[in-house]
Amino acid sequence: MAGPTPSAAGNPLTVLTLDELRRRSSVKWRMHPPDVLPLWVAEQDVPLAPAVADVLRRAVDLGDTGYPHGTAYAEALGEFAADRWGWTGFRVDHTTVVPDVMMGIVEVLRLVTDPGDAVVVCSPVYPPFYAFVSHAGRRVIEAPLGPDLRLDHAALDEAFRRARALGRRPALLLCNPHNPTGVVHRRDELEAVADLADRHGVRVVSDEIHAPLALPGAEFTPYLTVAGAENAFALTSASKAWNLAGLKAALAVAGPRAAADLRRMPEEVSHGPSHLGVLAHTAAFRAGGPWLDRLLDGLDANRTLLESLLAKHLPAVTHRRPEGTYLAWLDCTALGIPTEAPADEPGVASDLAWPARFFLDRARVALSSGHVFGTGGAGFVRLNFATSPAILTEAVTRMGRAADARRPQD
Ligand SMILES: Cc1ncc(COP(=O)(O)O)c(C=O)c1O
């Protein structure tokens, strides 16, 4: 497989070779045997942004590995949010650090819902939304996305009605931008959500971990900047955009009418993030902009490459061009691969069903199995295209070959 080409200089996705990536010990590269190309979990095949690496190197050289202090992370996010998204009302004193986005979501849900209350999710959606919500003793209600894979406000209205009937304090857990579809919700769509939530007395918690990854042509709208969202929360982090999942730290942000709720969060939650995590995430938001822009260009090129690869090698597989994230949600139902009802509960990410099982066994390409994303996921796979064009090309070529060689019982 070809290494980096001079013309691609600057694109973080073309720096590391497959051999270098295989030396990594993170789950993406260790879950499967070495002949498998891993395009599943949301890790990126990039080196660290120099601004982040420098900060970490300095801390290690200095032995600066104690506890975190101060509000630099929130200040850096505030500057980034004003600069990129025009979010001028961001208030550092309406934020708190949390260990990671999912833990932050659980802790915020504990503030605004009671055990047994309903939490609405827009399926298909990031599988831990199911597991973490139910492990916290709340009940998941699905409001499936529409056929265009965008938010379905009639489904939300109905789900909010059911959620109200189930318990006193329901919530909506929004994924903005949406994983796995890559949809970046528009302001008018979010305003309609806020209006519905207000009418039904539903508190909104918006997971904005993919926010910096709005791709050219799309504009990210922070939920807290939407009219009617004053009592909502957002959770964000530099972890997806700058590939910092191993350096945990995230921020919970409260709207003006949710700040009092946020102050009730138990103190120990803010003890979770590590000092190195906070340093890295702060550096990413503060000084990682130029690197991010090169990454976004690389991801934009990869999403176009993916379209042409699918057209050539897997013409029966369809998808909507993602507007953000580095995830493509591939509809494989027309491949004719059996899509019998999955045995697993939504949210059980460890198990593979068709067609992810088929592509792993026959193409040696690891993808995320659609069925664990909840209603609407069976027959789909999620492909992570935050990799080099060479690996992406090899993976889709292999998938196409496997589909062409399919036997009836496959
Ligand atoms: C939508 C979404 N939320 C949360 C997470 C996990 O974030 P964290 O590791 O900060 O909990 C991911 C990871 O891919 C994600 O896609």
From TrEMBL:
Enzyme Commission number, as recorded: 4.4.1.13
Cofactor entry: pyridoxal 5'-phosphate
Keyword Lyase: yes
Protein family (similarity comment): Belongs to the class-II pyridoxal-phosphate-dependent aminotransferase family. MalY/PatB cystathionine beta-lyase subfamily.
Organism annotation: Micromonospora chaiyaphumensis
Top-level division of the source organism's lineage: Bacteria
Entry protein name: cysteine-S-conjugate beta-lyase
Listed CDD domains: AAT_like
Domain Aminotransferase class I/classII large: start-end pairs: 73-398
GO molecular function, one term: pyridoxal phosphate binding
InterPro entries: Aminotransferase_I/II_large, Class-II_PLP-Dep_Aminotrans, PyrdxlP-dep_Trfase, PyrdxlP-dep_Trfase_major, PyrdxlP-dep_Trfase_small
Record keywords: Lyase, Pyridoxal phosphate
